[in-house]
Structure formats: structure tokens, C-alpha cells
């Protein structure tokens, strides 16, 4: 998957231009800085965005150089996601199929990131500080490094481990777990080494309107554990997240119930 990702991003620019668009509803698109003009900083990164489900993606929409590998990676990461959601359901004291039953694993997108070597990394950022908006993110990163997570107000490096995947809790999983799970704030540093390649799989229904109202799971609430967040449609949460852009305060604050 990493080799195929690199092969796409190192195609001549005129071949990649066929996939370039800032049109949100396109299922496959190539670009940079989805939040340009909204965030404070531009990020040192290009991305091939692939919307893989729940409506199956026509493989012909993918670039030939990464088509077969991306389709197979999508199939396998979907299986992994289902397994992770079972474990997370049990960790909350719920039945194993609870999170899958409310469509947490129904849709996913694959984002193929490419961070070129940066001549002045102290003047740039690979990806601005943020947490992910969906339920869960499964990340495959190469050997270059640069990913950091925020812990107790200190940035901690997440060194790449060959063959390992990094799993991030997303904002929506924090919301429905009523803060039992916490979405992780993270960033990627620009690097004079490179290029850095990573592949992020986001479990969310970003482009598919859902009628489900997502709020703290009722079975987790009690008099001692009242709801922290109000209910919201997934598309309303995502609209607020993307309007806000990366950086700044968490999108979750907008949905908190004020005491």
C-alpha cells in the first residue's frame, strides 16, 4: 500500500491533475489543504482522497498505479475496523455488535498522504494540530516519522514500527461514549527527510446523509454520569468540523451541554 501510494504521488503533475478538484462530493480527488482559507496555516502535504463506502467505489475511478492495491487494502481494513468496533463495544460494557449496530463501521474513506521533503521544516507544518472527526482512524505510516500526539500538554513522538498500525479514537466516538473514550489530538511535523507517506482510513459516513441522531449512548448514562453532549446528526457535526478547519479548539466544544 505504501509503495502504491508513493507511486501515485510521484507521477508527473499532468497525470495527477486529472484527479485534482476541490469539489467535496467527488469520490476520488487529489489536492492539498481541504481547509485552505479557513485554517491559520497551510499544510506541507498532498492527498489522494478515496471514498470507499458504504456505496462501493467503482475501481475504474481510482488511478491505475494504485487501483488494485487500494481496493484490497480497503477490503482488509474494513474487516479490521469491524473487529476493533467489537472490542470497543465490549470495553464500554456493551454487546460486541453495539457500535456496528449504530453504523460506526458502515462507511470508510482512505486518504493517501504525501509529505515532500521540506527545505525549511522549522517554518512549516506537515499537518496542523487536530483530532479526527469520525469514529475511528486506522493509520499506516512509513519509516520517516513525524507523527506526534498531545499528552498532558506535551507533544510525544509516535515512532513508526514496521508492520504496525496506529489507531486513533475520533471525535464522534468520544461523543457517543460520553467521554469514556477520548479523541486524540495529533499533528505531523514537516521534515527535511522525505518524502513521508502515510495512509489513513477514516471510519465515518462523511458523504452519506444519515437519519441517526448520535448522542451519548443511553446505556452508559446514569445520575452520576449525565450526558456531556447534545445529540446531533453526523452530517451536522462534520459540517461544523470542516467549516472550522484544522487547528484551534476541538469541534466537540460546540456540541457540549452547558451546565
What would the keywords be for this entry?
6 helices, 6-stranded antiparallel β-sheet, alpha+beta, about 260 residues, about 20% helix
Protein architecture, described:
This protein has 259 residues and is an alpha+beta fold. The chain is 22% helix and 22% strand. The chain is built from six helices and twelve strands. The strands form three sheets. A six-stranded antiparallel β-sheet has the order 1-2-3-10-5-8. β6 and β7 form a beta hairpin. The radius of gyration is 18 Å and the shape is globular. The termini are far apart. The mean pLDDT is 91.
Give a short summary of the structure.
The chain has 259 residues and is an alpha+beta fold.
Structural topology:
Layout: H1 2-9, H2 13-16, E1 28-31, E2 46-51, H3 67-91, H4 98-101, E3 108-115, E4 127-130, E5 136-141, E6 147-151, E7 154-157, E8 166-169, H5 171-176, E9 186-188, E10 196-203, E11 213-214, E12 232-233, H6 234-244
Antiparallel strand pairs: 1-2, 2-3, 3-10, 4-9, 5-8, 5-10, 6-7, 6-9, 11-12
